[in-house]
Design brief:
The chain is an alpha+beta fold. The protein has 19 helices and 30 strands. Strands 18-19-20-21-30-26-25-24 form an eight-stranded antiparallel sheet, with helices on one face. Strands 1, 2, 3, 8 and 9 form a five-stranded parallel sheet that branches. A five-stranded antiparallel sheet has the order 12-13-14-15-16, with helices on one face.
Length: about 675
């Protein structure tokens, strides 16, 4: 027999929300690289499997929907077959069974929505960082997954006490490609590949493991002519010795072939590889699922825990990954994630499900490659990666989101405000609540609104409450602090963010409260007399009310708002459109709508890109002078409503002294009826 079957699998996993990073490629460059790889596979008619992490898919749907459309086209023409898996690439053996179920369910929801996958999970799945443990078999099969990829070394037997036989994992590690010179492979010798490690094996009646050929990871794409010569001999040798049970699988990060995401340029070399395979006939490129579906049930085998050689051995994570999670450096983050999970599970069905889903997203994202170690800054060994610390730290945002979910499930609320360390990060947050609005303000971080949920009018056709301010599930770069404005790229402005004061601490106090309204005044703790804010809620006005005084005229007050943050994550922005009139600006998606209402005599609203990072739309209020009144709300609005609500707001924001008439209300513009 000749022409051994060869299957490609590309794993696309990035946690980026925009472009403009100073320490990595942005989502645009990454998606462009992915698209070039898929174009090469189409051009040379070589099929490939493709796994898209949920976080990558959500970012692409928002910033690069054309890439998602390209994937659909490549699926339709047979170039691409999808792989399933988890949402945010957790290390599954280090997570609870409950979390793994939620990770798989979140990914399945995205597959159903955007690719029409029946049941949500394709038959073959990618294991995050290829870390396998036998106890995963049940939860994977329960999710509808029939096959998972593991490194071929895992199919070798554990080391027995009496030595290192040729079928042992130690033998595979010793004689594998893991210590090759990067520029010059060793002389080829026939019989190099152990065919037993190239055969799929059934670990249960419902789940099969598929071996990734370690040699191909070191030969694809060929760095030198010597690598290509070695590859040709390797493929010929396997083709001559194959029995029909074997399959050669190349599977690795898609960034590697595309030369993006920190990998060296490789696209020309990758094209050379595909051209060689297309023209030489050295192997038979196949679609992985199609080939496997046509084969009989593979022989059973016990496959012990393990992962790829570099992670398990060279980097000391060990076969169960505990070398990285059972460390003092990770313990506090692991305990935090366990605590947040317990709170989510305890909440159960007693809270509003849509806001609960956003809270759950924070846990799933906090588990992103949990405990991962990068090269240490001093170049000696590896240390806990700063981006892992940041994503785990921000899992604490699940707590205020659960609070909002409890509020949304409750009854009627008198307007109220108070200072609480609701996320338990050591600093108090200002929480304002009314029938319509649940709002979190961070006094420590510029008195910005970082989360705002709106109940939305009953009978409006909108499906439950929505988060309209805050993009908490989006990447926080290396920032562990909660609620902090992110400078590079400019992101997480929340609402009412003034860059000149975004990192100053403010002191809040409740200045007025009765059955119909509450008002909170805030001043910088450094004693500035001209920087003053008042936030308020009032019955009858479906918005947060804000009066902002600045020390200098012309300040830009940044806002990132969205009609429904959960739907923005799940569905992208193609169905969202800008709306507005003279007194208000906003966005609409179906029956959902969010908006800023303002006085044109005080300010104008512009949509600019500096705050466009993440799942939301920038709406910057440019003040004409040093004072502006704003409303930030959701639901149906037109200019006549804005006139009335602004007038009602000013009764709270600027109450007239006793015996004096209140300042004249905003006049309705011509044509408003």
């Amino acid at each position: 027999m000749s022409g051994a079957p060869l299957a490609f699998v590309h794993h696309a996993n990035q946690l980026n929300i925009t472009d403009g990073y100073d320490n990595r490629d942005g989502i645009g460059r990454i998606c462009d690289g992915y698209a070039e790889v898929l174009d090469l596979h189409r051009r040379y008619r070589i099929p490939t499997g493709l796994h898209l992490s949920g976080t990558l898919l959500e970012a692409a749907l928002w910033h690069r929907p054309d890439f998602v459309g390209l994937v659909r086209d490549r699926i339709a023409d047979g170039t691409v077959s999808l792989l399933g898996g988890t949402y945010s690439e957790p290390i599954m053996p280090a997570c609870s069974e409950w979390s793994n179920r939620r990770q798989l369910a979140a990914a399945a929801d995205l597959h159903r929505r955007h690719f029409g996958v029946p049941g949500g999970q394709p038959p073959t799945a990618w294991l995050p960082e290829r870390v396998w443990a036998p106890e995963l078999a049940g939860v994977l099969a329960e999710a509808g997954i029939r096959r998972v990829l593991v490194d071929d070394r895992l199919l070798a037997k554990p080391v027995p006490e009496d030595g290192y036989p040729a079928d042992s994992r130690a033998h595979a590690d010793l004689h594998g490609p893991f210590h090759w010179d990067s520029e010059q492979p060793p002389p080829f010798r026939p019989g190099l590949a152990d065919l037993r490690l190239l055969r799929p094996r059934a670990v249960t009646g419902d789940l099969t493991v598929l071996p990734i050929c370690s040699y191909l990871r070191y030969l694809f794409p060929p760095r030198t002519d010597a690598h290509l010569t070695f590859l040709e001999a390797f493929l010929a040798d396997v083709g001559q010795r194959q029995t029909g049970e074997e399959i050669l699988v190349y599977a690795d990060d898609m960034e590697r072939a595309a030369g993006v995401g920190g990998w060296e340029p490789a696209l020309e070399r990758y094209e050379r590889l595909l051209r060689f395979l297309a023209e030489s006939g050295a192997a038979e490129p196949v679609s992985l699922d199609s080939w496997l579906d046509g084969r009989p049930q593979p022989a059973p085998a016990e496959v012990p825990a393990g992962t790829y050689y570099e992670l398990e051995v060279d980097w000391s994570a060990g076969p169960s990954y505990r070398g990285w999670t059972d460390t003092q450096e990770w313990w506090s983050y692991g305990e935090l994630l366990d605590s947040v999970e317990a709170e989510l599970r305890e909440a159960g069905s007693a809270v509003e499900p849509r806001l609960q889903a956003v809270a759950e997203r924070m846990l799933l994202l906090g588990q992103h490659e949990l405990g991962w170690h990068d090269c240490a800054e001093d170049g000696r060994g590896r240390a806990l990666a700063p981006w892992v610390r940041a994503t785990a730290s921000h899992a604490r945002l699940a707590r205020p989101l659960l609070s909002a979910a409890r509020w949304a499930a409750g009854g009627r609320y008198a307007p109220s405000a108070g200072l609480h360390d609701i996320d338990r990060d050591g600093d108090g947050e200002l929480i304002l609540v009314s029938d319509d609005v649940w709002c979190l303000v961070s006094p420590r971080e510029g008195a910005r609104v970082t989360l705002l949920a709106h109940r939305r009018p009953r009978g409006s056709g909108e499906d439950g409450p929505a988060l309209i301010v805050g993009n908490p599930a989006d990447h926080w770069n290396f920032q562990e602090e909660l609620h902090r404005y992110m400078e590079v790229p400019a992101a997480h402005p929340g609402a009412l963010a003034d860059r000149e004061t975004a990192h100053r601490a403010w002191l809040p106090w409740v200045s007025a409260q009765d059955a119909s309204a509450v008002a909170v005044d805030l001043r910088p703790v450094d004693g500035s007399a001209t920087e003053v804010r008042r936030y308020a809620l009032r019955h009858g006005v479906p918005a947060l009310l804000a009066c902002i005084h600045t020390a200098t005229p012309g300040r830009r007050i940044e806002n990132l708002i969205v009609p429904d943050y959960l739907e923005a994550l799940l569905g992208g922005k193609e169905a969202v459109s800008a709306v507005g009139r003279e007194l208000w600006r906003g966005w609409k998606s179906g029956a959902s709508q969010c908006w800023l209402a303002f006085d044109p005599g005080q300010a104008e609203v512009v949509a600019d890109e500096p705050t466009a990072a993440g799942h939301g739309f920038p709406a910057t209020v440019v003040a004409h002078d040093t004072h502006v009144d704003l409303l930030l709300g959701a639901g149906f609005v037109h200019d006549a409503f804005a006139v009335r609500w602004l007038a009602m707001a000013r009764d709270v924001l600027h109450p007239a002294p006793a015996g004096q008439p209140r300042a004249a209300a905003l006049a309705a513009p011509t044509g408003v009826v």
